[in-house]
Amino acid sequence: MDIDIELMLRTKSGDDGAFSELMRRHYKGVVNYIYRYTNLKENSEDLAQEVFLRIYRSRKNYRPEAKFSTWLYKIATNVSLTHVKKKNVNLSLDEMNDEGGEIGDPEIDIAADLIYRKEIKDVIFQAMESLPEREKVAIMLCKYEGLSYEEAAQVLECTVGAVKSYVHRGRMKLIDKLKPHLPGGGEYGV
Amino acid sequence: MECSDCKELIVSWSSGDLPPSGKESIEAHIGECPECRLYMSQSDRVWNLLGEWREVEPRSDFVSCFWDRVSKEERESGWSVFSYVRKLRLNWAMAGALASVLIVGIFTFALFKPDSGFETYADNDARDEQILLELDDATTRETTDALSIYGPWENTVEIMKINGYGDMN
Questions:
Q1: Contact B145/A at CB under 8 A
Q2: B82 inside 8 A of chain A by CB
Q3: Using CB atoms, which residue from A32, A168, A178 is nearest to B11?
Q4: What is the Cβ-side half-sphere exposure of residue A25, based on CA atoms within 13 angstroms?
Q5: Nearest to residue A38, comparing CAs of A2, A86, A109, A107?
Q6: pLDDT value at position B63?
Q7: In 10 A of CB B87, how many CB atoms?
Q8: What is the DSSP string of A26-77?
Q9: Chain B contacts of A24, Cβ < 8 Å?
Q10: Distance, in angstroms, between B36 CA and closest chain A CA?
Q11: I want to staple A131 with a disulfide (CB 3.0 to 4.6 A). Which of A135, A154, B32, B102 is the partner?
């Protein structure tokens, strides 16, 4: 049996320790998924807790019908989307630059490289934001969270073919938007 | 093959969704088309560039903070009526049964409750009847007094017959 499902079933039977283990396995991925979705680092941890809280509250009704991660990311997507709509989050570049915590890698201490990373993070976020919702979510799930097309299809509640199409179209748009920012330049026009 | 078709295939190829025949078509095209060759290179590089968006490191006490939050929420909602009902683990069937018992109880109480309304009505009715009788007597007396001006006859009924009041009986 899948370890996540086993932990969830133990949680269902009243073992909170199993839920702690489940969180330890997934919370980094959920926090980062929400962070990339909302672009708010502090809120992403609170929202990730909200995701796990929803799962914990519904533990009594849990049925192991699908992979746990698809359920997890479906809730994370809903929570993120609701937050963005409710708060009308202003996805400003200033806020992104203020965070900057993940950029301080001590092994890379070259100012130019830091600037490049900040810039590229802004650029990628803006490019992702410009995509239609489903294309953005499909790419985030497949590229960053490592979900298969089948799992992403369950999260998005669509067919595998549709997910492939979302990823394909989104990827073509990202190439157009990001090629000028490629190292070494992307001066050529399509 | 048109360049636009080739670019579509390039993205599919990069995603691993292209059959071998498609790969041969791309290779044939990009061998002659520098623009599509560059596009293919950019496709992979853009996909790799997305990896530059590094992860954030959540705080290490995420799990303990979660349980603190759970405890806090349970405390805050501990005294509400809804949480009390929830603690009783009432399900819909039980709630329905309770509602049914309540409705039956109300009807039973209404059915066997002593009704004083009827008695009150009967008392009032008797009182009204008495008032009407007294009024009738008073009217008769007034009529008798009024007719006494016609003379010393003592038989009032006869007088009324003479004056065209018909049979009073």
A1: no
A2: no
A3: A168
A4: 15
A5: A86
A6: 93
A7: 9
A8: HHHHHHHHHHHHH--HHHHHHHHHHHHHHHHHTGGG----S-HHHHHHHHHH
A9: 63
A10: 9
A11: A135
Complex ipTM: 0.73
Per-residue pLDDT tens digits for A57-109: 999 888 888 889 999 999 999 999 888 877 665 544 444 444 444 434 445 45
**Angle subtended by helix axes A3-12 and A68-87, to nearest 10:** 70
d(CA A92, CA B133): 96
Alpha-carbon span A41 to B158, nearest angstrom: 116
Residue B54 is given by DSSP the state P
The whole-number pLDDT of residue B39 equals 85
Alpha carbons B57 and A118: distance in angstroms, whole number: 16
Decide: A136 and A145 in contact? Cβ < 8 Å.
Answer: no
Q: For helices B3-14 and B20-30, what crossing angle results, to 10°?
A: 130
**Interface contact flag, A181 B49, Cβ < 8 Å:** yes
B14 vs B34, residue with greater confidence: B34
CA distance A65 to chain B (A): 24
- For chain B, say whether A121 makes contact (Cβ under 8 Å): yes
Within its chain, how far is the Cα of B41 from the centroid? 61
Which chain B residue shows the shortest CA-CA distance from A140?
A: B50
A160: closest chain B residue by CA? B17
Chain B nearest-CA residue for A128: B50
- What does B8-29 look like in DSSP terms, one character per residue? HHHHHHHTT---HHHHHHHHHH
Whether A27 sits inside 8 A of B17 (CB atoms) is no
Choose among B8, B49, B56: nearest Cβ to A31.
B56
Q: Which residue in A23, A31, A120 is closest to B52 by CB distance?
A: A120
